[in-house]
Specification:
alpha/beta; Chitobiase, domain 2; Alpha-d-glucuronidase, C-terminal Domain; eight-stranded parallel β-barrel; six-stranded mixed beta sheet; 18 strands; binds beta-D-glucopyranuronic acid; EC 3.2.1.131; Xylan alpha-1,2-glucuronidase; polysaccharide degradation; xylan degradation; carbohydrate metabolism
């Protein structure tokens, strides 16, 4: 049995002061979820509230579609958008659909938590995209690949095993920020998870899908491309083999008999030892389309991942570059995918590093649907031990100007579907939750989940606003000065993490396998294609024309920006260039002095945060104080290890002393 003692994070719970007045809400919708959500969360905010089902003179809040409330419809309302409207002394929560009403109701609740007066609430909101998704990397044995918040909320002992209340609360958390699709199992699908699409498992999955359906969240499964062999008893998984096609058609039909609104499949193929169409000399379009055809009669979708690279390549001969892989594999297939295939492209060309440039495939596909994939779980960004608020990173990516159709072709414009109007686009991410009471291990990592959801709804939301709102609604009982401190340390945390880890965008100096802590050469002599090429003269990866020419995958403007040492931003210098240690940065420092300084600064920043946190002790609840204090001290140990290893390594490699003589070996 799972722990019942979970905390609700940003949704209202018993920790809040109630408003002394009563609230009368009239719900003109048959959707059970609206009633339940009002009941569950408004009861924490008001001394008393009453729910009615008919309009009358006393009601203050009316929730219903334009049709049910006989309110005039606002132009340009999307089906899951919503409106809050003041009319004759009442506040209306309006939409075309119950789904939109659910989002509107959560918005209303959030505004109350933020202290807004009801009579001032007036807004129209449409989501930027219809694909607002989360991917779980949960395994059926209960472990989570790259999970840092305890065991899976869905599985244990190779079975489905979940607490219904907890899943319901999770669904509410997701709906409160607009998430509408979820994949519940790891993209690395092994034999046991392949069985999820078999009849007995589907009976169990039905109940889980019911809970998510109640919140208008569609459920997906990751599938194993070799399932016809692994569980179907066939000799091949060749996508063009008719027995294979038939097997997938039958299996898919079975799924829809049990889960009529099933979303579809996520597929990781031909990557990191996963099977795929390459085994049979077929293309990824062949593979994806075969599955798409099985799903099409039921309106299902295939999310086909572009994280495809040969992890056994060795780039010593410079003939390949892992950064090139996604674009090289998929750009040439543009236009060959069926309508219900959506390509899933990681935000950067490598793999969720602390800093990477934006993937050049975003915006480059003109005839193929796609989503961008972020990583909310902090695999390479501190593993929910170190603090790393990722919204500023995502915002930087979303605001990036690709120049693909001239100035202003930002990633958020592209993902909102404004570049190629006929395409389906959107955002997905690997989630950071587990069975820990606080959902995310590090309680402040909840802010990443909240911020991610909000950005999928509207990528133009400002980082500061998202942070302020999250802190205010999550910690209404925390005093002002401590609230400001939480905001401040979260806001700076990505920069601080970057300072004490891999310098200037080079990435990958992590311990191999688990990816926490420093190991400068851990991946340097492995075949995984993730090198920094440090020697006694310099470091960095030449991805310009004289190197792998990865830069050619961008628009001319962007390519030039990165190719030219005068314009390439310092924070990506080593991603694009191999330079001497004495190379001067735009900041005026040399590369080597920057490495030393930033690593010392990163550790000092963590020490300073600990000092500030300790000073606020009296203004913080004991459990929150000690939880964060303990995490910060672990972070300090990690940051110190990074500083010492990186600085020592580069001092010994370069032989150039630190100007400030701080090095142990200096
Ligand atoms: C890498 C992870 C690995 C995942 C892979 C993926 O280290 O666990 O399976 O990405 O996205 O970041 O498939």
């Amino acid at each position: 049995m799972q722990n019942q003692n979970f905390t609700s994070c940003w949704l209202p719970d018993g920790r809040r002061e109630k408003r002394s007045n009563k609230l009368i809400v009239t719900i003109l919708s048959k959707a059970e979820v609206i009633r339940r959500v009002c009941h569950t969360y408004l009861s924490h905010l008001f001394e008393g509230f009453h729910i009615g089902t008919e309009l009358n003179s006393q009601d203050e809040i009316v929730i219903g579609t334009y049709e049910a409330t006989a309110q005039a419809c606002t132009n340009d309302m999307q089906v899951d958008g919503f409106e809050l409207r003041q009319e004759q002394g009442k506040t209306y929560i309006l939409s075309h659909s119950d789904q939109g009403l659910l989002y509107g109701t959560f918005y209303f609740i959030e505004q109350l938590q933020l202290g807004m007066k009801i009579e001032d609430m007036s807004v129209i909101q449409n989501p930027a995209t219809t694909i607002r998704m989360l991917n779980h990397w949960d395994n059926m044995d209960g472990s989570i690949e790259r999970g840092y918040a305890g065991r899976s909320i869905f599985f244990e002992d190779n079975k489905l095993s979940y607490d219904k209340d907890r899943i319901q609360q999770y669904a509410d958390l997701l709906s409160s920020v607009g998430i509408n699709k979820i994949c519940i199992n790891n993209v690395n699908v092994h034999q046991v998870e392949s069985r999820l699409i078999e009849a007995d498992m589907l009976i169990e999955l039905q109940h889980l899908a019911d809970i998510f359906r109640g919140n208008y969240i569609t459920m997906f499964l990751s599938i194993n491309f070799a399932s016809p062999i692994e569980i179907g008893g066939l000799k091949t998984a060749d996508p063009l083999d008719s027995t294979v096609e038939e097997w997938w058609r039958r299996q898919t039909k079975l799924i829809y008999q049990k889960i009529p609104d099933f979303g579809g499949f996520i597929v990781k193929a031909d990557s990191e030892h996963r099977p795929g169409p390459f085994t049979y000399g077929r293309t990824h379009a062949d593979g994806a389309n075969m599955l798409a055809k099985a799903l099409a009669p039921f309106n299902g979708t295939v999310f086909w991942r572009c994280f495809v690279y040969d992890c056994l390549q060795d780039w010593r001969d410079r003939s390949t570059d892992r950064a090139r892989a996604a674009y090289d594999h998929f750009k040439k297939l543009d236009g060959l995918f069926d309508e219900n295939v959506i390509l899933q492209i990681k935000n950067g060309p490598m793999d969720f590093q602390v800093r990477e440039p934006v993937s050049p495939l975003i915006g480059a596909l003109e005839k193929t649907n796609y989503v961008m994939e972020f990583q909310v779980t902090q695999e390479y960004t501190g593993q929910q031990i170190d603090l790393c608020y990722l919204v500023p990173q995502w915002k930087e990516i979303l605001d990036f100007d690709t120049h693909l159709k001239g100035k202003g072709t930002t990633v958020s414009e592209i993902l909102s579907g404004n570049l190629h109007k006929s395409l389906q686009t959107g955002i997905t991410a690997v989630v950071n939750v587990g069975r820990d009471d606080n959902w995310t291990g590090h309680e402040f990592a909840q802010a990443n989940l909240y911020g991610y959801g909000k950005l999928t709804w509207d990528p133009t939301f400002k980082t500061e606003k998202l942070l302020k709102d999250w802190v205010q609604i999550t910690y209404p009982f925390v005093k002002d000065s401590a609230t400001r401190l939480i905001e401040e340390i979260l806001n700076r945390s990505w920069m601080i993490y970057e300072k004490y880890t891999c310098p200037l965008g080079v990435g990958w100096m992590v311990k191999t396998g688990h990816h926490y802590g420093p190991d400068v050469n851990g991946y340097e002599y492995s075949p995984w294609g993730t090198y920094h090429f440090s020697d006694r003269n310099g470091l960095g990866v030449d991805r310009t024309k004289s190197g792998s020419n990865y830069i050619e995958q961008y628009s001319a403007n962007v390519s030039e920006l990165y190719a030219n040492l005068n314009s390439c931003p310092d924070n990506l210098l080593l991603f694009f260039h191999h330079v001497p240690y004495t190379h001067p940065l735009h900041s005026g420092k040399t590369v080597i002095q920057h490495i030393y300084d930033s690593h010392f600064e990163g550790v000092e920043d963590v020490e300073h945060i600990i000092y500030e946190w300790t000073r606020e002790k009296a203004n913080l609840p004991d459990d929150l104080y000690s939880h964060i204090n303990q995490k910060l001290n672990s972070q300090l140990t990690n940051a110190t290890e990074w500083r010492d290893k990186i600085n020592t390594y580069f001092y010994r490699m370069s032989g150039i002393p630190d100007e400030h003589q701080r090095l142990i070996y200096g």
